[in-house]
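Budget justification aside, the reviewers requested a transparent look at the raw inputs and outputs of the sequence design task funded under Objective 1. We therefore reproduce one unedited record. The lines immediately below are the structure tokens for a 254-residue chain.
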């Protein structure tokens, strides 16, 4: 069965673009005729990836912006759309704290909710009126396999990613009536600075470029969910069937 590309975006805005999956995704989209608007709180990382994208022929611009700053996000998105009307907005900005040996602090918990959830809403809310006025657009929300089970290693991360997954799924039928398509991305372990800090074994860990290619292909086909790799999908499903006490023993804090 041949799956044909359904979407061909030429103007893309990416949050969390300075490194990891965000930077890798910018690279796979970069090319002649592409407009990339890259945002992050890390100016050095943004400058580097922007230079790479320009070298590949893209019209790339970077903006240092904090996704928790509602006014700044609205201004950035409006300015980007005025330059080149946006086709695709990819919301990747996110953080995770805590580990198997150290609990999250109250400050880290609040920061996780602020960046992962408020940051997503601060991106989504200014974009929706633009897409609705044009009656077209594509949104990509970054969730996680951690969304399917609250993990004691990083409970706030699991909670925020669960909210993003469910919210994205709810938006899909709501916005499709207006020709706006929503994709929820659920990656397995991907080699990024965030996962480099993990102290546990990460099976089937993919490189960021490989993950970016999978995501781009899924977005081009308009898939409502991009979840990979399949062994992690199967493992998470299996864990969801186990009694909660069994799972808690497997991922208990040390």
């Amino acid at each position: 069965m041949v799956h044909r590309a359904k979407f061909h975006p030429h103007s893309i805005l990416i949050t969390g673009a300075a490194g990891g999956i965000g930077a890798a995704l910018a690279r796979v989209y970069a090319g002649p005729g592409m407009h990339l608007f890259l945002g992050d709180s890390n100016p050095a990382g943004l400058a580097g990836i922007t230079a790479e994208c320009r070298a590949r022929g893209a019209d790339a611009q970077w903006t240092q912006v904090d996704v928790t700053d509602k006014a700044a996000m609205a201004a950035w998105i409006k300015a980007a759309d005025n330059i080149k009307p946006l086709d695709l907005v990819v919301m990747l900005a996110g953080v995770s704290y805590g580990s198997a040996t150290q609990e999250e602090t109250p400050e880290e918990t609040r920061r996780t909710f602020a960046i992962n959830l408020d940051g997503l809403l601060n991106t989504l809310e200014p974009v929706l009126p633009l897409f609705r006025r044009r009656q077209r657009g594509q949104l990509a929300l970054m969730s996680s396999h951690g969304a399917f089970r609250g993990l004691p290693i990083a409970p706030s991360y699991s909670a925020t990613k669960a909210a993003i997954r469910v919210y994205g799924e709810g938006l899909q039928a709501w916005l499709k009536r207006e020709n706006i398509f929503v994709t929820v991305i659920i990656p397995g372990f991907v080699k990024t600075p965030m996962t480099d800090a993990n102290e546990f074994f990460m099976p089937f860990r993919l490189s960021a470029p490989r993950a970016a290619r999978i995501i781009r292909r899924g977005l081009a086909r308009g898939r409502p969910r991009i979840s990979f790799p399949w062994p992690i999908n199967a493992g998470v499903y299996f864990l969801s069937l186990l009694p909660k006490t069994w799972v808690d023993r497997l991922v208990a804090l040390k």
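The chain is about 50% helix and 15% strand. The mean pLDDT is 88. Computational costs for records of this kind are itemized in the attached budget.
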